[in-house]
Design a protein that fits this description.
The protein has 4 helices and 4 strands, in the order E-H-E-H-H-E-E-H. With 132 residues, it is an alpha+beta fold. It has a single domain, classed as Glutaredoxin. Strands 2-1-3-4 form a 4-stranded mixed beta sheet, with helices on both faces. The chain is globular and about 35 Å long.
């Protein structure tokens, strides 16, 4: 089974989705990790402020911290190999690293009505195409 380990910077809680101002990037990433779990991927997160020993015990993560400092976090490891550091990867990247296909369920929903939706004006037939 594929295993994804996330080594997060120091945060107030395990996901960083708490407090008065929530970072939208952390919300998206938490949803992406939940999606990975629903696909049968083992996911484990480590928070620097709550689990510092996990960072010290992992040689590759320890080196990343020593060379880049906290700017190198998060570190994303898949099956023991660092795939990303310093940024939260996209769902597509996570899926690819985990060997999962990116399909309609994992991609954001798109509408089929054009870039701006259908026009409600019947005066100009060209505007009925849905393009701006």
């Amino acid at each position: 089974m594929t295993a994804v380990h996330v080594f997060d910077p120091a945060m107030c809680c395990s996901t960083g989705i708490c407090g008065p101002s929530v970072d939208a990037e952390l919300v998206r990433f938490a949803a992406d990790l939940d999606w990975l779990k629903s696909q049968g991927i083992a996911v484990e997160r480590f928070n620097l402020s709550q689990q510092p020993a996990a960072f010290a015990d992992d040689a590759a993560v320890k080196v990343a911290l020593e060379t880049k400092g906290e700017a190198g976090l998060p570190v994303i490891k898949v099956d023991g190999e660092i795939k990303s550091s310093g940024v939260y990867p996209s769902r597509d990247e996570l899926a690819a690293w985990a060997g999962l296909p990116v399909n309609a369920e994992s991609a954001p929903k798109a509408t089929s009505s054009g870039c701006c939706g259908p026009s409600t004006s019947s005066a100009d037939p060209a505007k009925k195409s849905g393009c701006c």
